[in-house]
Amino acid sequence: MNLPNRITIARICLIPIMMLFLLVNFRFYPEPLHWGSFQLSVNHLIAAIIFLLAASTDGIDGYIARKYNMVTNLGKLLDPLADKLLISAVLISLVELGRCDSLIAVIIISREFAVTGLRQVALLDGKVVAASKWGKIKTVVQIVAISLLLLNNFPFQFVGIPFDDIAIWAAALITIYSGIDYFVKNKELLQAHNA
């Protein structure tokens, strides 16, 4: 259990805490924060901070593992699992809150399962499907979009731009494209196992 794996496990442990702040309405919460017509509940602000903290650890654990030669099989399993759990949990919570279209959540979560399946097929052949450029872009756009949804479109609410809605639809489209890109670039894997 090296440092990168501990960071990854910490990311997984932050998920239920984030969901608790998102979905449970505790009585001891202070009044929502107000700036003119803008309103943000304190629990959603805390959930957003936890989400950003958890999302930021994704790059950190991988960087430490590669730099200090701490890459393990456990880490290879846990790291992508942690990412998928985090994104899936927050999207399902946002659907429950009426802040995200269920179609978007289904698209994004389905793509994650599909690419995970592709990676499992690759592992059968002893190969690793590395993250693509579009996969990395997809992750960044998803994090930005989800953060905006958690923060009620702050600060774009002040200028009347629904950037949170634009960003989450952009995330869905990029997610679809990056998923297709993975399968096109690795079609020989599927062909080999389909023969």
UniProtKB/TrEMBL annotation:
Q: What class of enzyme is it?
A: transferase
Q: Which residues cross the membrane?
A: 6-24, 45-65, 140-160, 166-184
Entry's localization field? Cell membrane
**Keywords, in A-Z order:** Cell membrane, Lipid biosynthesis, Lipid metabolism, Membrane, Phospholipid biosynthesis, Phospholipid metabolism, Transferase, Transmembrane, Transmembrane helix
UniProt main location, coarse: membrane
Return one Gene Ontology term, BP aspect: phosphatidylglycerol biosynthetic process
Q: What is its EC number?
A: 2.7.8.5
Can the keyword Glycosyltransferase be found in this entry's annotation?
A: no
| GO CC annotation terms, alphabetical | plasma membrane
Catalytic function, reaction form? a CDP-1,2-diacyl-sn-glycerol + sn-glycerol 3-phosphate = a 1,2-diacyl-sn-glycero-3-phospho-(1'-sn-glycero-3'-phosphate) + CMP + H(+)
Q: In Gene Ontology terms, what is one molecular function of this protein?
A: CDP-diacylglycerol-glycerol-3-phosphate 3-phosphatidyltransferase activity
Q: In which pathway does it act?
A: Phospholipid metabolism; phosphatidylglycerol biosynthesis; phosphatidylglycerol from CDP-diacylglycerol: step 1/2; Lipid metabolism
- Membrane topology, from the record: Multi-pass membrane protein
PANTHER family cross-referenced by the UniProt entry: CDP-DIACYLGLYCEROL--GLYCEROL-3-PHOSPHATE 3-PHOSPHATIDYLTRANSFERASE 1, CHLOROPLASTIC, CDP-DIACYLGLYCEROL--GLYCEROL-3-PHOSPHATE 3-PHOSPHATIDYLTRANSFERASE-RELATED
User: What is the similarity comment for this entry?
Assistant: Belongs to the CDP-alcohol phosphatidyltransferase class-I family.
What this chain does, per the entry, is described as: This protein catalyzes the committed step to the synthesis of the acidic phospholipids.
Designated name of the protein: CDP-diacylglycerol--glycerol-3-phosphate 3-phosphatidyltransferase
The organism of origin for this protein: Paenibacillus rhizophilus
Q: Which gene encodes it?
A: pgsA
